[in-house]
C-alpha cells in the first residue's frame, strides 16, 4: 500500500469514527441532536467555502471543462426522477419515494469523500492535463490537485442543481405544507443564503484561475487544505451521527437495495454514456476529467440528502440511515475496486 492509499484509508476511518462519535455523544447525553444543525451550518458556510476557493483557484483551464456544466444537471435530475417514479410504481408512499429519489440524485463527490479520493488515487503524471509538464518533479502532485479541482467544481454545480431541481421535486412529492413557504422564494433564499456561500467562493476561485492570479506559496504547500478537509469531514459526519437512529423503519432492506442499484449501477452507466458522447464532438473529455468522473460515478449518496430531508419535513431518520448504509456499501465493495484499479 503506497503512502497516498494509506492516507485515504486513514481519512475513511476518521470519517466513520466521526459518525459514530456523534451518535455516541448523543446517546450518552453529551450533545443534543439539535447541535447537528449548527455544526452543518458552520461546516458548509465556512469550511467548505474556503476549500472550494483554494481548490478551484488551481483549476486547469481547458475547453473540455465545459462538460462539467453539461454533466451535472443530468446526473442530478435524471436519477432522481427515475428512482422517484420507480418507487411510486412499487407502491412506496410519495414522501418515501422522493426521499430515495433525492438520495439517488446526490452523491458524496465533494471534500468529504469523492474529491479527496480523486486527489489521492489520480496523482499520476500520465493523466496530467494540458499545461502540466508530465516529466516535472511535481507533476504527480499538480495532477492530483487538478483532479481535486475538477471534482470540486462538479460538486459545487451539483449542489446548485440540487436546489434548482430537487427542491421542486421534494415539494411536489413531500408532505403537504412542506418547506413552510412558497417554492420560488425558497429557492431564491437558498441560493443567496450563507449556506450557498460555497457556490460563490467556488466562482471566486474560478475567476482567480481565469485571471491567472498567482497562487500563494503557503497554499501550494498543501497543509492548510488538508487541515480544512479534515475539519469539514468532522463537521459533516459528526452532524450526521448526532441525528443517526437505528430502528426497524430505517433498516428495512427495500430502500437500501434501490438506492444501491441507483448509485452503483444506474449512475455509473449514465456517466459512461455521457463521457462516450463527448468523443462524438470536437471537444472530447480529457483523460483526467474522464477518470475523475469514473471515480465519482461510484460515490454513495451525499450528506445533502439529510439536509433536504430536514428542510422539507421528509423522514430525516431514514435519510440518515440511507446515508450510513449506502456509504458502508461503498467502503466494503466499491472502494476496494477503485483502489485496485487506480492505486494498484
From TrEMBL:
Cell compartment(s), UniProt: Endomembrane system
Annotated transmembrane regions: 6-26, 38-59, 65-86, 98-122, 147-170, 191-215, 227-246, 258-280, 292-312, 319-343
Gene Ontology CC: one annotated term: endomembrane system
Membrane topology: Multi-pass membrane protein
Superkingdom field: Bacteria
Keyword Manganese part of the UniProt annotation: no
Keywords: Membrane, Transmembrane, Transmembrane helix, Transport
Keyword Membrane in annotation: yes
Protein name in UniProt: Uncharacterized protein
Amino acid at each position: 500500500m503506497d503512502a497516498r492509499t494509506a492516507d485515504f484509508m486513514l481519512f475513511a476511518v476518521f470519517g466513520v469514527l466521526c459518525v459514530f462519535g456523534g451518535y455516541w455523544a448523543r446517546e450518552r447525553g453529551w450533545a443534543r441532536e439539535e447541535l447537528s444543525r449548527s455544526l452543518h451550518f458552520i461546516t458548509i458556510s465556512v469550511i467548505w467555502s474556503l476549500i472550494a476557493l483554494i481548490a478551484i483557484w488551481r483549476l486547469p483551464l481547458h475547453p473540455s471543462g465545459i462538460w462539467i456544466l453539461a454533466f451535472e444537471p443530468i446526473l442530478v435530475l435524471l436519477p432522481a426522477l427515475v428512482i422517484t417514479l420507480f418507487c411510486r410504481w412499487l407502491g412506496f408512499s410519495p414522501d418515501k419515494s422522493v426521499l430515495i429519489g433525492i438520495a439517488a440524485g446526490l452523491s458524496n463527490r465533494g471534500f468529504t469523500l469523492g474529491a479527496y479520493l480523486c486527489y489521492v488515487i489520480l496523482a499520476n503524471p500520465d493523466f496530467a492535463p494540458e499545461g502540466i509538464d508530465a516529466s516535472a518533479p511535481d507533476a504527480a502532485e499538480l495532477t492530483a490537485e487538478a483532479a481535486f479541482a475538477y471534482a470540486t467544481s462538479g460538486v459545487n454545480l451539483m449542489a446548485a442543481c440540487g436546489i434548482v431541481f430537487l427542491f421542486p421535486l421534494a415539494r411536489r412529492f413531500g408532505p403537504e405544507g412542506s418547506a413552510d413557504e412558497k417554492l420560488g422564494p425558497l429557492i431564491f433564499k437558498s441560493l443567496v443564503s450563507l449556506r450557498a456561500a460555497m457556490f460563490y467562493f467556488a466562482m471566486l476561485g474560478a475567476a482567480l484561475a481565469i485571471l491567472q492570479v498567482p497562487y500563494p506559496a503557503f497554499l501550494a504547500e498543501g497543509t492548510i487544505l488538508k487541515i480544512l478537509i479534515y475539519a469539514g469531514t468532522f463537521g459533516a459526519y459528526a452532524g450526521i451521527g448526532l441525528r443517526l437512529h437505528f430502528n426497524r423503519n430505517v433498516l428495512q432492506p427495500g430502500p437500501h437495495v434501490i438506492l444501491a442499484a441507483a448509485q452503483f449501477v444506474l449512475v455509473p452507466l449514465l456517466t459512461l454514456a455521457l463521457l462516450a458522447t463527448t468523443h462524438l464532438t470536437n471537444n472530447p473529455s480529457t483523460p483526467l476529467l474522464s477518470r475523475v468522473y469514473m471515480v465519482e460515478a461510484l460515490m454513495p449518496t451525499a450528506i445533502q440528502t439529510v439536509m433536504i430531508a430536514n428542510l422539507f419535513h421528509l423522514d430525516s431518520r431514514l435519510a440518515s440511515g440511507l446515508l450510513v448504509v449506502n456509504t458502508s456499501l461503498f467502503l466494503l465493495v466499491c472502494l476496494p475496486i477503485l483502489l485496485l484499479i487506480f492505486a494498484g
